[in-house]
Amino acid sequence: MQSQGLGKILLNYAKDKRNKLYLNIYQKNARAISFYKREEFEIQHSGLDEATGEKDYVMTWQHK
């Protein structure tokens, strides 16, 4: 179901309900990182997902 606009619809719903959103995303997931950057999320810091051993980012969005 990728590239059909469903993610954007769901994200806009969440943005309507909250003033600030946080998410963790694997650093190797370049496609998703690009999506969230287009949606005005910013990388706050990098870390490590202890459950999987994968490097990740914490990204945030704040209502302007």
Write the layout of secondary structure elements.
Layout: H1 6-17, E1 20-26, H2 30-38, E2 42-49, E3 54-62
Antiparallel strand pairs: 1-3, 2-3
Protein name: GNAT family N-acetyltransferase
Domain N-acetyltransferase: 1-64
GO molecular function: acyltransferase activity, transferring groups other than amino-acyl groups
**Bulk shape:** globular
Biggest sheet character = 3 strands, antiparallel
DSSP summary, beta strand count:
3
Provide the gyration radius in Å: 12 Å
Quick recap of the structure?
It contains two helices and three strands; from the N terminus they run H-E-H-E-E. By secondary structure, the chain is α+β, with helices and mostly antiparallel strands.
Descriptive account of the structure:
With 64 residues, the protein is an alpha+beta fold. The protein has 2 helices and 3 strands. A 3-stranded antiparallel beta sheet has the order 1-3-2, covered by helices on one side. The protein starts with 5 loop residues before the first helix and ends with a strand. 5% of the residues are buried.
